[in-house]
Amino acid sequence: MAVSAGAGAGNRFGFTTGQVIQEFGYDDDVDPSVREKIETVTGTELVDEEYGDVCDGTLIWWREDDAEHDDLTDLLVEAQSNLEDGGGLIWVLTPKPGRQGHVRPADVEEAARTAGMHATSAATVADEWSGIRIASRSRGR
To answer: What is the distance between the alpha carbons of residues 12 and 69, in angstroms, rounded to a whole number?
Structure first.
């Protein structure tokens, strides 16, 4: 299921009022409107990678060159460990096809599988960015 950006894009991520959302991979190329929409929906500012408490959701900005510095699988595991009770929503945002830093959705899905998770939906989140929602696998799988 794909969702698109717009006035309600913040809640299309599935985040709700009062949630704390941790952000990884922030850089000068991120789309500020995506961040603002999430902060408007939650009523809280995004917290950074150094946040020392549990959170309710995660936003990961991931580009092709990031693989040289970090491993997306490890980052997904870290993000999940920071989530309240291991649950919550994780979104991996990547540059769209044809944009600098584009990452194939299959690469994100493979990293999620390796981390014991799976991709559940895709979204167009901004002019330059697409997103893939990542969820934990249920214990029965």
So the answer is: 30
CATH architecture for the domain at 21-136: 3-Layer(aba) Sandwich (3.40)
pLDDT band, very low/low/confident/very high, at 87 (cuts 50, 70, 90): confident
- Say if strands 2-4 and 117-124 run parallel, antiparallel, or are unpaired: parallel
Name the DSSP letter for residue 67.
G
Where are the extended beta strands (E) located within the chain?
2-4, 21-24, 57-61, 89-95, 117-124, 129-136
Give residue-wise pLDDT tens across range 94-109.
999 999 999 999 999 9
Residue 25 corresponds to which tokens in the numbers above? Answer: 């991979």
CA 41 to chain centroid, in Å, comes to 16
Task: Check: CB of residue 132 under 8 Å from CB of residue 13.
Answer: no
pTM: 0.88
- Its sign, for the CA torsion 93, 94, 95, 97, is negative
